[in-house]
Design goal:
The complex is a heterodimer of chains A (304) and B (318). Chain A is α/β, with parallel strands linked by helices. Chain A has helices at 44-51, 73-77, 95-103, 111-120, 136-148, 166-183, 194-197, 218-224, 236-245, 266-275, 288-298, and strands at 4-15, 18-29, 33-37, 59-64, 67-68, 80-83, 154-158, 186-191, 203-208, 211-217, 227-233, 250-253, 256-261, 280-287. Chain A has eleven helices and 14 strands. The chains are: A alpha/beta (304), B mainly alpha (318). Bound molecules: adenosine-5'-diphosphate (ADP) and magnesium ion.
Chain lengths: 304, 318
């Protein structure tokens, strides 16, 4: 049985006269990874700041395992681990000193636990170096380490993939899936790039101008419906003939061919291309519906 | 360790791990050593010990030399010499052997270094909250299951602990350096000094502690002020600048308003508690009880304002 780890009820934030968050409702279950997607300035960080208690709500409530962040701050905060925007740690202290500093702010986080977390995020080699010398990727990992020291029920990561290369993103995806599956942690992960976090999420909510405008499960989408597949080939004309023969819809984008088709059909199509002596350089599937929806909803200005 | 001490440890750790903090101690030590070198080189009239059976004669000779010098030079030097002469006469009249110059005497004179200790404490107090905002680390600090009140309290206490450590450092290094350069006068030496009752034979250790103690009042008030300014404005330069400006101009401010009755409520009219020992009070009718009350009111006001701003305000983006 999964329990609700995080619940937002009609959360509102007004700064001055401007309503930045206009009543957000959402809930995340234990063991679930929730993607919080929206363009820059949509209100992701503001929402997160309210969830973790850095900003006061002007309306509504936030509950972590049923405890309100407003009326039961300590009990609620005990179950949250977070990175808010950049992982800013003390640059003049080592990774180890930084983690011990945060460990002292909880009851029962032992040195052994700190060591365990360090090896989980793979920072053993640099843990005695000053954080000022760390690369962004190392700081992100240390940021994750400080967020999970006390085994929180809810982990919130605000744009953790910012500035990371694909390998770094894959690594973060692996930790997050492990935390969700093994330790039943609820994870809320925000990004302005759908493509970067889509693969690690169970569910995705799209926020724009302070409102969650759409929410849906990721896996249903990728299994049930058609994908868009980008084909990179040398002989575009020949390839186009193959697709037409199979009655597939083709979109052209510069010299790439984008084709809508079912996942199971990909090997067949590739086989036909090769039989016709088309030289194939790349076959890249993208989840059609979500991507389309995101582009549509946000005006297409944020997908890169 | 209890939660309070773990948080206090964190704050002190962050303070003392930084090189800029160590520079403060190096500067203090350099001044203490430098002061001792200068004293031993240039103040040739310093006598580090008087002989047991012959000190009366030594003092008489010293007086004769001083009288002669006064006649030749006149003016300022004559004035200075005449106070030394009357002090020597006090020794002779009361048959008190003068205390030679030594570690305690040097430490006593170094009470003026407390303005530097105050400056350093103000710098630490002005940075302890605002630096967390500057570094962006405030976010990771305030998402823990600890009330903001507790965080603010441990930060303030850490500043006081810094002040105490620095004070003890100044005292002990003055004693040590003084002992190396001038010798040690013993554990409870008595010396003759001028007070409102004329010359008196007093415990040097007692006078040293009371002199340091009087300075601590101003140190705590100005540090609390800087702590408040930096908590409200999240800007340590502003806090340091304002606190130093007020520390330097405090007496002038009181002097400017001295003829008005409200002047006695000005903080700086009350920070120097020594005025009640010397009897030379700023404004007629002020008492020790009055000043202590005014100081407490200011202190509570500074802390309450820091608390309100630290607790109520959103930690928003830059
Ligand atoms: N302290 C603040 N004062 C006024 N407006 C703010 C403040 N912080 C954020 N905003 C505004 O709120 C909106 C949402 O910002 P933010 O939550 O940072 O978005 P995101 O994280 O999705 O990029 C933006 O329009 C931003 O300009
Ligand atoms: Mg943001």
């Amino acid at each position: 049985m999964s329990q609700v780890a995080l619940e937002l009820k009609d959360v509102k934030k007004k700064i001055g006269k401007k309503e930045i968050i206009k009543g957000i409702n959402l809930s995340i279950n234990q063991g679930e990874v929730y993607g919080f997607i929206g363009p820059n300035g949509a209100g992701k960080t503001t929402t997160i700041r309210m969830i973790v208690g850095l900003m006061r709500l002007t309306g509504g409530d936030v509950k972590i395992l049923g405890k309100s962040i407003q009326s039961d701050y300590k009990l609620a905060a005990k179950n949250i681990g977070a990175i808010v925007e950049n992982p800013e740690l003390y640059p003049f202290m080592t990774g180890w000193q930084n983690l011990m500093h945060y460990a002292r702010m909880y009851q029962g986080v032992t040195k052994e636990r700190v060591e365990e977390v360090i090896s989980l995020v793979g920072l053993e080699k640099v843990v005695n170096d000053k954080v000022g010398k760390y690369s962004l990727g190392m700081r992100q990992r240390l940021g994750i380490a400080q967020a999970i020291l006390h085994k929180p029920a809810l982990l919130i990561l605000d744009e953790p993939t910012n500035g990371l290369d694909p390998a770094g993103i894959r690594e973060i995806r692996d930790y997050i899936r492990e935390l969700a599956v093994k330790d039943n942690v609820a994870v809320m992960i925000s990004s302005h790039l759908l493509s970067e976090i889509e693969l690690m999420c169970d569910r995705i909510g799209i926020i724009q101008q302070g409102e969650v405008i759409s929410e849906r499960a990721v896996h249903d989408e990728s299994t049930d419906s058609q994908l868009k597949v980008i084909f990179e080939v040398k002989q575009n004309d020949k390839a186009q003939e193959v697709f037409e023969e199979k009655e597939l819809t083709i979109e052209k984008e510069s010299n790439k061919l984008i084709v809508k088709l079912d996942r199971e059909d990909i090997p067949n199509v590739v086989k036909s291309l090769i039989e016709k002596d088309v030289e194939v350089y790349g076959v890249t599937p993208i989840k059609a519906t979500l991507e389309d929806q995101f582009l549509e909803l946000t005006g297409g200005n944020v997908i890169e | 360790m209890s939660k309070f001490f773990k948080l206090l440890y964190n704050e002190l750790f962050k303070t003392y791990i930084r090189k800029s903090t160590w520079v403060m101690y190096i500067v203090l030590l350099a001044i203490i050593i430098g002061g001792a070198v200068i004293t031993s080189i240039f103040e040739d009239e310093i006598v580090t010990s008087y002989s047991d059976d012959n000190w009366q004669e030594e003092l008489t000779q010293e007086n004769e030399k001083l009288i002669q010098e006064s006649e030749e030079e006149g003016g300022y030097i004559a004035e200075m010499n005449s106070s030394t002469i009357s002090k020597n006469n006090f020794h002779l009249d009361n048959d008190i052997k003068p205390l030679g110059y030594g570690a305690w005497q040097y430490t006593y004179e170094n009470a003026s270094l407390l303005s530097l200790v105050s400056l350093f404490t103000i710098i630490i107090g002005a940075g302890i909250v605002s630096s967390e905002f500057k570094w962006g680390t405030i976010k990771l600090l305030l998402i823990r299951p600890i009330s903001r009140t507790m965080i603010l309290l441990t930060k303030f206490v850490a500043v006081l602990v810094f002040a105490l450590i620095t004070l003890i450092f100044t005292l002990l290094s003055s004693l040590l350096v003084g002992a190396i350069f001038f010798g040690f006068e013993g554990f409870d030496p008595y010396f003759v000094t001028s007070t409102i009752n004329g010359y008196e034979h007093l415990s040097l250790v007692g006078e040293t502690f009371s002199s340091y103690g009087y300075n601590i009042v101003n140190l705590i008030m100005m540090t609390t002020f800087a702590f408040m300014v930096s908590t409200i404005f999240r800007n340590n330069s502003l806090a340091i600048g304002l606190a130093i400006f007020l520390m330097l101009s405090g007496n002038m401010i009181v002097a400017a308003f001295q003829k008005y009755d409200f002047a006695k409520y000005i903080l700086f009219a009350n920070t120097d508690l020594k005025q009640y020992e010397t009897g030379d009070v700023w404004i007629e009718g002020m008492t020790l009880g009055f000043s202590v009350t005014v100081l407490i009111v200011y202190f509570v006001l500074f802390m309450a304002l820091s608390w309100v701003f630290f607790n109520k305000r959103d930690v928003a983006g830059h």
